[in-house]
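Z., the sequence and structure:
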Amino acid sequence: MVKIESIEAFTDNYIWLVTTNEGSIVIDPGESSNVINYLDNNQLDLKAIFITHHHFDHTGGIDDLVSYYPVNVYGPFNNDIASIDKKLKDGDKINVIGIEFEIIEIPGHTLDHIAFYSENNGSPILFCGDTLFAGGCGRVFEGTFDQMYESLNKLKILPENTNIYCGHEYTLSNLKFAKEAEPFNQNILSRYNEVLKLRETGTPSLPSLLSTELKTNPFLRSDIKEVQENISIKFKTIKETKEIFKTLRSWKDNF
């Protein structure tokens, strides 16, 4: 059985902990103290660290953890992260704690960004860092809008029952934007109200299902006629799908 838990860090980061009867994996540990305490308090055996990209709020706890638990660190080809000793590229497959993961390169937010995907015996799971968020997507810092668009398209075609574990609790603010991008989408309004209730009690809005994202995440819907029409009217121009995506992302940057 696979158990996935969140460990909160900073103001809105989630560090993910995946556990089977063979041990645990920690994903994107931006800090170490909460992780070490959790592992110790629950008598868990850390077997590996997974890294999706180089930003400090996803990597800052690696060195402390490795000094405490001498485990392999799996991550992208990036010489700036000296602790990564298992460098991964698109299409690689790894088996850790009895789970087979496939690596998907998803540049855009950063150039080195990867995701860890597992079919997980019919209950697929995706750890996608800061590329695909619940209701949104990451800012384009190092890559291009085209790269981010193509990366999201890679994730968009995964099985619709894929559980999405992203790096931040941004869902409510993302859905506020989604309501503006698609004002007549009742699925977005319903989801916004559901997430609002969750956050009022401090309950995480994650994971999200890909099927939900396909209905409510405007960044996966730039090919939908209603989205294209709304953006074209708002910005007074007709644009093809990639340009619709770029316009959406630029609008969100200043929202």
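The CA atoms of residues 177 and 252 lie 7 Å apart. The chain has one domain: 3-253.

Let me know what you think.
H.
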